[in-house]
From TrEMBL:
<dbReference type="Pfam" id="PF24827">
    <property type="entry name" value="AstE_AspA_cat"/>
</dbReference>
<dbReference type="InterPro" id="IPR055438">
    <property type="entry name" value="AstE_AspA_cat"/>
</dbReference>
<keyword id="KW-0479">Metal-binding</keyword>
<keyword id="KW-0862">Zinc</keyword>
<feature type="domain" description="Peptidase M14">
    <location>
        <begin position="29"/>
        <end position="308"/>
    </location>
</feature>
<dbReference type="InterPro" id="IPR000834">
    <property type="entry name" value="Peptidase_M14"/>
</dbReference>
<comment type="similarity">
    <text>Belongs to the peptidase M14 family.</text>
</comment>
<protein>
    <submittedName>
        <fullName>M14 family metallocarboxypeptidase</fullName>
    </submittedName>
</protein>
<keyword id="KW-0378">Hydrolase</keyword>
Length: 308
């Protein structure tokens, strides 16, 4: 493990407004949310209603105003269980966004008869465009899905789901673990918080993060078994860990998701998992990463359909 320091702020002192503005000034638009995410939604009208559940306005920060969309399956019936699929909570994690869209476009028909589906493909559009983990206020949406959220991205999704008044049977949240976690995002977090960062080992391969309060090991294992047919599963490091946490079963660690304010506990769904794909692996292509996300979604749906 190595200590990595960030070039903004002073060691041991949390960022104030000046440091956050200094960080924000370095962020640049590098791709298009409108082109990559919003435009493809128009082709999904046969099976989904496109619902705008909020809007994040960052014009005051010299960026854009972003509509937030969720896909709601058209054949919605009260006698079907609800499955929630989320991507792009961390906008830089590309395969989660593209995996959600690919599933909606190419793989959804086998599930519409048995599930009501909600798919939020890109929860953090500014972060998608700037290839970032945070929003422009230096807030991590994936630590903001509880209480009085400082992230509009998290708050709007949470409020939309609460208004539905339905507890999903399944929630799968699509993520990546990248080399930039160690080179950029973890050092930036430590600088922002006034702490010292110690990098973790980046797992080479796919893994899952279950919920410590409802781990459902058979559910997690069913997903791992199917994804292993598409790409390799991350082995534990020399300490038997993945990203600093004990591997509780092959390819799986558990987090206390509710306590951490993670997207994976935005609801009380009994079946919950977070995917983690490694796009920087020399043994995986970008297409494999997207298909790993799609395969994980299908495997999760197949398991809960058979179990219930």
């Amino acid at each position: 493990m190595t200590e990595v320091y960030y070039p903004i702020g002073r060691l041991g002192q949390p960022w104030q407004a000046a440091e956050k503005q200094q960080w924000l000034a370095l962020q640049k638009v590098q791709r298009s949310y409108q082109q990559d995410v919003v435009a493809p939604l128009a082709s999904l009208d046969a099976h989904f209603e496109r619902v705008q559940y909020g809007e994040v306005d960052y014009q005051a920060q010299s960026f854009a105003c972003y509509p937030l969309y969720i896909l709601k399956s058209r054949d919605w019936r009260d006698d079907k269980p609800l499955a929630l699929i989320t991507g792009g909570v961390h906008g830089y994690e590309t395969s989660g966004v593209q995996g959600a869209l690919r599933f909606a476009a190419k793989h959804v028909e086998g599930y519409l008869a048995d599930f009501n589906l909600l798919i939020a493909p890109c929860i953090s559009p500014w972060a998608y465009e700037t290839i970032n983990r945070w929003n422009p206020l230096a807030v991590d949406p994936n630590r903001s899905f509880s209480g009085d959220s400082a992230s509009d991205e998290a708050r709007y999704l949470r409020e939309y789901i609460q208004r539905l008044g339905i507890t999903p049977l399944l929630h799968i949240d699509l993520h990546e673990t990248t080399d930039s976690d160690n080179t950029e995002f973890r050092p930036a977090k430590a600088a922002r918080d006034g702490t010292v960062n110690t990098n973790w080992n980046i797992p080479d391969g796919f893994y899952l993060v279950g919920d410590a309060e409802r781990p459902e090991p058979a559910f997690q294992q069913a997903i791992i078994n199917e994804v292993a047919k598409v790409t390799h599963i991350a082995p534990p490091d020399e300490n038997g860990e993945l990203i600093g946490d004990p591997m509780v079963q092959p390819g799986v660690i558990n987090y206390p998701k509710k306590a951490l304010g993670l997207c994976g506990r935005v609801t009380e769904a009994p079946y919950v998992t977070t995917t983690e794909v490694y796009p920087d692996s020399p043994s995986a292509t970008s297409e494999q990463c997207v298909m790993a996300q799609v395969t994980a979604i299908c495997a999760a749906l197949n398991f809960v359909r058979q179990a219930n």
